[in-house]
Amino acid sequence: MGSRPCHAANSATPSDSATPATDSATGNIDVVEIEDDVPATKKRKLRSEVLKDFDLISVNGVWKAKCKWCKKHLCGQTRNGTTHLKNHLFICDDRILERV
């Protein structure tokens, strides 16, 4: 297993110096081991029913949700939630006309 030492500071503020942090009372250096062989996390499944009416696409490095009905691009980053996408479906003329 590959691991490398990482020096942790004893104070709450980060240190800009290249020297390791030492405990002023004992003079000990704090060393934290970091695992390099940690498996990558698995992507989560998108669970919202609203996303069935949208295609997630990347536009200039930003995720957008493209409406399958009117082709409008809305913000599609996962941290923004899906309420705005649901609200769009209520006012999307192309979807309303198709459902009639």
UniProtKB/TrEMBL annotation:
Residues 1-30 are annotated as: Disordered. This is BED-type domain-containing protein. SMART domains: ZnF_BED (SM00614). GO terms for cellular component: nucleus. InterPro entries: Cuticle_assoc_protein. GO terms for biological process: regulation of transcription by RNA polymerase II. One of its GO terms (molecular function) is sequence-specific double-stranded DNA binding. Residues 10-27 have a biased composition (Polar residues). It comes from Panicum virgatum (Blackwell switchgrass).
